[in-house]
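Hi R.,

As promised on Friday, here is the backbone we talked about, encoded as C-alpha coordinates. Could you run it through your design pipeline when you get a chance and send me back a sequence?
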Protein backbone atom coordinates (compact mmCIF):
# COMPACT_ATOMS: atom_id res chain seq x y z
CA UNK A 1 0.00 0.00 0.00
CA UNK A 2 1.23 3.50 -0.83
CA UNK A 3 2.66 5.55 2.02
CA UNK A 4 1.05 9.00 2.43
CA UNK A 5 3.11 12.00 3.57
CA UNK A 6 0.76 14.77 4.64
CA UNK A 7 3.35 17.58 4.48
CA UNK A 8 4.55 16.70 0.97
CA UNK A 9 2.31 19.29 -0.74
CA UNK A 10 3.80 22.04 1.43
CA UNK A 11 7.34 20.75 0.82
CA UNK A 12 6.68 21.09 -2.93
CA UNK A 13 4.89 24.46 -2.59
CA UNK A 14 7.84 25.85 -0.65
CA UNK A 15 10.30 25.17 -3.48
CA UNK A 16 10.95 28.01 -5.96
CA UNK A 17 8.86 26.39 -8.74
CA UNK A 18 6.22 24.42 -6.85
CA UNK A 19 3.71 26.93 -5.50
CA UNK A 20 1.17 26.22 -8.30
CA UNK A 21 0.04 23.08 -6.53
CA UNK A 22 -1.71 25.15 -3.86
CA UNK A 23 -4.13 26.55 -6.46
CA UNK A 24 -5.15 23.25 -8.07
CA UNK A 25 -8.85 22.29 -7.92
CA UNK A 26 -8.41 19.04 -9.90
CA UNK A 27 -10.57 20.17 -12.85
CA UNK A 28 -8.42 18.26 -15.38
CA UNK A 29 -8.18 20.99 -18.04
CA UNK A 30 -4.38 20.66 -18.02
CA UNK A 31 -4.56 16.98 -18.96
CA UNK A 32 -7.20 17.63 -21.63
CA UNK A 33 -5.03 20.28 -23.28
CA UNK A 34 -1.60 18.65 -22.85
CA UNK A 35 -0.07 17.50 -26.18
CA UNK A 36 2.02 14.83 -24.45
CA UNK A 37 -0.98 13.34 -22.61
CA UNK A 38 -2.60 12.72 -26.01
CA UNK A 39 0.08 10.22 -26.94
CA UNK A 40 1.63 9.02 -23.65
CA UNK A 41 -0.98 7.30 -21.50
CA UNK A 42 1.09 7.55 -18.31
CA UNK A 43 1.52 11.32 -18.63
CA UNK A 44 -1.25 13.07 -16.73
CA UNK A 45 -0.60 16.54 -15.28
CA UNK A 46 -3.82 16.54 -13.22
CA UNK A 47 -2.77 13.25 -11.68
CA UNK A 48 0.67 14.66 -10.84
CA UNK A 49 -1.01 17.48 -8.89
CA UNK A 50 -3.31 14.95 -7.20
CA UNK A 51 -0.38 12.79 -6.12
CA UNK A 52 1.33 15.81 -4.59
CA UNK A 53 -1.85 16.88 -2.78
CA UNK A 54 -2.39 13.35 -1.44
CA UNK A 55 1.23 13.07 -0.29
CA UNK A 56 2.20 10.17 -2.57
CA UNK A 57 5.82 11.23 -2.51
CA UNK A 58 7.62 7.92 -3.00
CA UNK A 59 5.22 6.78 -5.76
CA UNK A 60 5.83 10.02 -7.61
CA UNK A 61 9.62 10.03 -7.15
CA UNK A 62 9.91 6.37 -8.14
CA UNK A 63 7.85 6.72 -11.35
CA UNK A 64 8.19 8.28 -14.80
CA UNK A 65 5.26 10.70 -14.61
CA UNK A 66 7.28 13.88 -13.87
CA UNK A 67 9.69 13.18 -16.73
CA UNK A 68 7.52 13.23 -19.88
CA UNK A 69 6.64 16.94 -19.80
CA UNK A 70 8.04 19.00 -22.72
CA UNK A 71 7.54 22.38 -21.01
CA UNK A 72 5.22 23.79 -23.66
CA UNK A 73 3.14 25.45 -20.89
CA UNK A 74 -0.18 24.96 -22.67
CA UNK A 75 -1.43 23.77 -19.28
CA UNK A 76 -0.64 27.15 -17.75
CA UNK A 77 -2.66 28.92 -20.48
CA UNK A 78 -5.63 26.62 -19.84
CA UNK A 79 -5.61 26.33 -16.06
CA UNK A 80 -8.52 28.35 -14.56
CA UNK A 81 -6.50 28.72 -11.36
CA UNK A 82 -3.13 29.74 -12.82
CA UNK A 83 -1.77 26.55 -11.24
CA UNK A 84 1.36 26.04 -13.25
CA UNK A 85 1.79 22.27 -13.67
CA UNK A 86 4.71 22.73 -16.08
CA UNK A 87 6.68 24.51 -13.35
CA UNK A 88 5.53 22.01 -10.73
CA UNK A 89 6.99 19.23 -12.93
CA UNK A 90 10.38 20.94 -12.53
CA UNK A 91 9.89 21.24 -8.77
CA UNK A 92 9.23 17.49 -8.51
CA UNK A 93 12.17 16.63 -10.76
CA UNK A 94 14.49 18.77 -8.66
CA UNK A 95 13.35 17.11 -5.44
CA UNK A 96 13.52 13.61 -6.95
CA UNK A 97 17.03 14.12 -8.33
CA UNK A 98 18.30 15.27 -4.92
CA UNK A 99 17.37 11.78 -3.68
CA UNK A 100 18.97 9.98 -6.61
CA UNK A 101 15.73 9.26 -8.49
CA UNK A 102 16.82 9.91 -12.06
CA UNK A 103 15.39 7.84 -14.95
CA UNK A 104 18.09 5.98 -16.90
CA UNK A 105 17.55 7.93 -20.14
CA UNK A 106 17.82 11.28 -18.36
CA UNK A 107 20.95 10.14 -16.51
CA UNK A 108 22.65 9.13 -19.78
CA UNK A 109 21.92 12.58 -21.23
CA UNK A 110 23.08 14.35 -18.05
CA UNK A 111 26.37 12.43 -18.05
CA UNK A 112 26.86 13.17 -21.73
CA UNK A 113 26.34 16.88 -21.06
CA UNK A 114 29.04 16.78 -18.39
CA UNK A 115 31.52 14.67 -20.35
CA UNK A 116 31.00 16.06 -23.86
CA UNK A 117 29.31 19.41 -23.36
CA UNK A 118 26.40 18.04 -25.37
CA UNK A 119 23.25 16.20 -24.30
CA UNK A 120 23.43 14.10 -27.48
CA UNK A 121 26.66 13.44 -29.35
CA UNK A 122 26.23 13.36 -33.11
CA UNK A 123 26.64 9.92 -34.66
CA UNK A 124 29.07 9.31 -37.52
CA UNK A 125 26.04 9.03 -39.83
CA UNK A 126 24.72 12.42 -38.67
CA UNK A 127 28.12 13.99 -39.37
CA UNK A 128 28.18 12.47 -42.86
CA UNK A 129 24.69 13.87 -43.49
CA UNK A 130 25.82 17.31 -42.28
CA UNK A 131 28.61 17.30 -44.82
CA UNK A 132 26.35 16.00 -47.57
CA UNK A 133 23.92 18.88 -46.98
CA UNK A 134 26.69 21.48 -46.93
CA UNK A 135 26.25 22.36 -43.26
CA UNK A 136 29.97 22.50 -42.57
CA UNK A 137 31.80 21.27 -39.50
CA UNK A 138 29.91 20.60 -36.31
CA UNK A 139 30.32 23.67 -34.02
CA UNK A 140 32.85 23.02 -31.28
CA UNK A 141 31.99 23.05 -27.58
CA UNK A 142 34.18 24.37 -24.78
CA UNK A 143 33.77 21.30 -22.56
CA UNK A 144 35.92 22.79 -19.81
CA UNK A 145 33.69 25.86 -19.59
CA UNK A 146 30.56 23.68 -19.52
CA UNK A 147 32.03 21.55 -16.73
CA UNK A 148 32.96 24.66 -14.77
CA UNK A 149 29.35 25.86 -14.86
CA UNK A 150 28.00 22.39 -14.01
CA UNK A 151 30.38 22.06 -11.05
CA UNK A 152 29.41 25.50 -9.74
CA UNK A 153 25.76 24.43 -9.75
CA UNK A 154 26.64 21.03 -8.18
CA UNK A 155 25.22 19.25 -11.23
CA UNK A 156 28.10 16.73 -11.13
CA UNK A 157 27.29 15.82 -7.50
CA UNK A 158 23.59 15.43 -8.29
CA UNK A 159 24.11 13.09 -11.23
CA UNK A 160 26.58 11.00 -9.21
CA UNK A 161 23.60 10.10 -6.97
CA UNK A 162 21.75 8.51 -9.93
CA UNK A 163 20.85 4.89 -9.29
S1 LIG B 1 -5.98 22.82 -14.97
FE1 LIG B 1 -5.13 23.75 -13.10
S2 LIG B 1 -6.71 23.48 -11.53
FE2 LIG B 1 -7.21 22.09 -13.24
S3 LIG B 1 -6.25 20.12 -12.65
FE3 LIG B 1 -4.78 21.21 -13.92
S4 LIG B 1 -3.48 22.37 -12.48
FE4 LIG B 1 -5.32 21.72 -11.38
S1 LIG C 1 3.97 22.01 -19.94
FE1 LIG C 1 4.13 19.79 -19.78
S2 LIG C 1 2.29 19.16 -18.66
FE2 LIG C 1 1.94 21.23 -19.40
S3 LIG C 1 0.87 20.99 -21.35
FE3 LIG C 1 3.05 21.15 -21.82
S4 LIG C 1 3.83 19.04 -21.87
FE4 LIG C 1 1.82 19.01 -20.84
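Update: got your reply. Pasting your designed sequence below so it's all in one thread:
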Amino acid sequence: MSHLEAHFMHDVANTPRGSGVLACIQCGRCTNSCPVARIVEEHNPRKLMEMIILGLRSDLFGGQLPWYCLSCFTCLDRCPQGGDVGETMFAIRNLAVKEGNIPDGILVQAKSLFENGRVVVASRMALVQRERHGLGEEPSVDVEAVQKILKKTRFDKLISKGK
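One thing I noticed while checking it: Residues 38 and 58 are 26 Å apart (CA to CA).

Thanks again,
M.
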